[in-house]
Amino acid sequence: MDLGIAGRRAIVCAASKGLGKACALALAREGVEVTITARGADLLEATAEEIRKATGAAVTTVPGDITTEEGRAAVLKACPEPDILVNNAGGPPPGNFRDWEREDWIRAVDANMLAPIFLIKATVDGMIARKFGRIVNITSGAVKAPIPILGLSNGARSGLTGFIAGLARETVRHNVTINNLLPGPFETDRLRATMEGAARAAGRTVDEEMAARRRTNPAGRFGDPAEFGATCAFLCSAHAGFMTGQNVLLDGGAYPGTL
């Protein structure tokens, strides 16, 4: 299927690896000009070169922290009029809410709620004026089924979800859609890092812990980031203009609810 977005411009955040990289690669395969940002300059440039070689697409790199005003200003200077915005930032650390101070909550809200909102604020009116825009926020399956040790993420990402639910209904009449992609367990460095603590607690190796977790998923495996990227690309496509304000869960069937 031709997604109808060749020649469009996209900003993809936290795109040097993992799910952000998969989204950038999928968009580039569709002929989108991609601007990617992440904190590590060397890895970011290596990712950009990999995407260029694989797709022939134009890829611009902007090293920086998208959760800061300076990081957002830099990427918007490089791509001031994006047609597509993929918001993404690493989640806050796990823990017990009794141990978190105000500063911990502020960091979580800044990264996983306010940073996406400020990028939307900076870009959505231009999309409306051009009569095309696709905004995808990478959140978490924990928005549907909260994970107790990820309270910082549960709270901040749920706040973003509530905000998007209202805004998405205001922009869609201008062919500007806003949706959320909710990943469950995907084969990424972040997943492996989170498994390390669980493995220590269970007295197993990380590989043993990951194998055990795979078996508990109805799909019998973790997700492939390429699957996530393909879903993102469809949400950004010309064919997805009637889909807005949705929370699209990709978790291999782990969430057991009907709704």
Characterization of this structure:
This protein is of the alpha/beta class. It folds into two domains: 9-184 and 226-248, Rossmann fold; 186-222, no CATH class. 47% of the residues lie in helices and 14% in strands. It is built from eight helices and seven strands. The protein has helices at 18-29, 41-55, 69-78, 102-130, 151-171, 189-202, 206-216, 225-235; strands at residues 9-12, 33-38, 59-63, 84-87, 133-138, 176-183, 247-250. Strands 3-2-1-4-5-6-7 form a seven-stranded parallel β-sheet, with helices on both faces. The relative contact order is 0.15. InterPro entries: NAD(P)-bd_dom_sf (IPR036291), SDR (IPR050259), SDR_fam (IPR002347). It comes from Azospirillum thermophilum. This is 3-oxoacyl-ACP reductase.
In summary, what is this structure?
This protein has 259 residues and is an alpha/beta fold. It has eight helices and seven strands, in the order E-H-E-H-E-H-E-H-E-H-E-H-H-H-E.
Q: What is the alpha-carbon Rg in Å?
A: 18 Å
End-to-end Cα distance: 29 Å
User: Reading side by side through the largest sheet, how are the strands ordered?
Assistant: 3-2-1-4-5-6-7
- At the fold tier of CATH, the topology name of the largest domain is Rossmann fold
The biggest beta sheet, please? 7 strands, parallel
- Number-wise, the strands total 7
Family: Belongs to the short-chain dehydrogenases/reductases (SDR) family.
Organism: Azospirillum thermophilum
Protein name: 3-oxoacyl-ACP reductase
